[in-house]
Predict the structure.
Amino acid sequence: MALPNRNEAMQLLREHTESENLIKHMLAVEACMRSHACRTGETEDLWGITGLLHDFDYEKHPTPEEHPMFGISILEERGYPDEMIHAIKAHATYLGVPRESLLDKCLFAVDELTGFVVAVTLMRPSRMLCDLKVSSVKKKLKQSGFARNVSRADIETGAIELGMSLDAHIAFVIEAMKEISEDLGL
């Protein structure tokens, strides 16, 4: 099967996810993936839909024993592209699937950081991405008690694997998320 269009991907996502916060997370990852695809000359729809669907099974199957493999079985059954499936597997470090392609590395790099950026934004008086600075995100990264479930090591590793400084990576993610700030409610 050829790559499904975005509407088909959204339909699949909504069949398995009701949480608006989780949907917003996947929209944020999608936006970052599309921006990185444009930056690197890669296929925007492949990258975007990979970001959109990377956690579509998480709400109902959140354990490492099930996520993302429950969703992977659905994607395989529907004939989704192998490179998408590999990237989604590789973003779950506990599966031990190596991140080989730029798609794999990018999904891993933006996943944790988008959630962290949302958390930082929600703590700001404006609760808006438009005035969020890299320095604010970096300051919160140093506070181990803030968003304690977010792996700082994964964020740093993601930037390194993309060949970007941490500052540049954070700035890129903020800018990509600003493009859909209305959808994110930020």
